[in-house]
């Protein structure tokens, strides 16, 4: 997943070698190549990404594999979260727990609100509180 503004790209990617490892990164694009400004390892599975102002929103779910129910996380039965991250360095500045993970690419921002489509069929509106 990628988001961009001007000649800067933020994204999440699965790291090589398997094991469900992902990273969040920022690159400055110059012509046909990109210079990685920073990279943060994620201990979650990203499902949606959105940039608004100077904030990155990530819809994530656990990557845990339970011995008695190995598909629980992937099926959404372990819930999910919204991570709020800084565009400047990828640091997590807030986290909001959800009873179900966000659907793949299931976020949109409009009118100072974040709308989420979740795996349990709900549409959630998260409004700004700093009015």
What this model shows, in words?
With 131 residues, the protein is mainly beta. The protein has one domain: Lipocalin (Beta Barrel), CATH 2.40.128.630. It contains no helices and eleven strands. The chain has a four-stranded antiparallel beta sheet with strand order 1-2-3-4, with no helix packed on it. Strands 5-6-7-8 form a four-stranded antiparallel beta sheet, with no helix packed on it.
**What is the overall number of helices?**
0
First and last CA, distance: 30 Å
Point out poorly predicted stretches.
none
CA-based shape: globular
* Spatial order of the strands forming the largest sheet: 1-2-3-4
Order of helices and strands: EEEEEEEEEEE
Arithmetic mean of pLDDT: 90
Q: Can you tell me the CATH architecture? A: Beta Barrel
Say what oligomer this is: single chain
Question: What's the gist of this structure?
Answer:
The chain contains no helices and eleven strands. It has strands spanning 2-5, 8-14, 22-30, 33-42, 44-52, 55-62, 80-86, 92-98, 102-110, 113-118, 123-127.
Topology:
Elements: E1 2-5, E2 8-14, E3 22-30, E4 33-42, E5 44-52, E6 55-62, E7 80-86, E8 92-98, E9 102-110, E10 113-118, E11 123-127
Antiparallel strand pairs: 1-2, 2-3, 3-4, 5-6, 6-7, 7-8, 9-10, 10-11
């Amino acid at each position: 997943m990628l988001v961009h503004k001007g000649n800067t790209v933020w994204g999440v990617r699965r790291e090589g070698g398997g094991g469900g490892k992902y990273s969040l990164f920022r690159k400055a694009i110059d012509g046909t190549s990109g210079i990685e400004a920073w990279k943060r390892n994620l201990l979650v599975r990203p499902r949606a990404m959105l940039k608004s102002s100077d904030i990155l929103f990530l819809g994530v779910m656990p990557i845990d594999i339970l011995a008695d129910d190995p598909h629980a996380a992937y099926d959404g039965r372990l819930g999910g979260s919204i991570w709020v991250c800084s565009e400047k360095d990828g640091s997590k500045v807030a986290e909001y727990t959800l009873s179900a993970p966000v659907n793949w690419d299931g976020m949109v921002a409009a009118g100072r609100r974040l709308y989420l489509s979740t795996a349990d069929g709900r549409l959630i509106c998260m409004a700004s509180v700093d009015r």
